[in-house]
Write a structure and sequence with these properties.
The protein is mainly alpha-helical and about 230 residues long. Helices cover about 70% and strands about 5% of the residues.
Amino acid sequence: GMGILVGLPCLKLAGPYIALVTFGVHMALQPTLRGEIGIALGSGGSVGLLTIPPISMFGYTFSSAHMVPTFYLTLLVSLGCILIIMFAIKSWWGTAFLALKDSQDFAMSLGISAFKYKLMVFALTSFLTGIIGAYYGHFYGVVSFRLLDLDLFSILMVMMLVGGLGHFPGAVIGAFLVVAGSELMAPLGAYRAVTMGALVVVLVLALPNGIMGLFLKQSAKKIYGN
């Protein structure tokens, strides 16, 4: 629902302007949820939501204290979200999404409704984000407005850039690489973030389309030759 509300005023905008509006909403949410309005909406205000019970199914408890079953449930939820995205991309909806992204005027001349499909994108992505957010809350048992800090937002953006912005399954590949790279660089301590940032800059300069750019180049070579 929130995604649709944010998406409605963005329907007349394009490209970077949509990104600016969504980023502005993201920045405004933290003080909003921390204040009286947030308390009224059930966010818990500055305290957040505490003692969220873990998910329990089939005799298993899925929380940070039970990592093995939680790993498999996380894998299942992740695969479910990936399959939803894959089916959406491969469907007529996905074709319409790509057409609007590449050439909105041409897509609209073919009868594709920019209003309808852009709103569907906001709704679908918000739905998937909501699922993962709810799962996160049950895993840690706590949800706070601090989840909206710029640090997490930056990490998510880095994952997409590393994998390949706008190229499925670039975000999945980027998430694996960024998390694995961050853990491998843990011995660097305070220098880990600086090193990670430098590596991301080099990667973006070398591969503007991220890791998926390598696959795109290989596909182009097979089709067109050199």
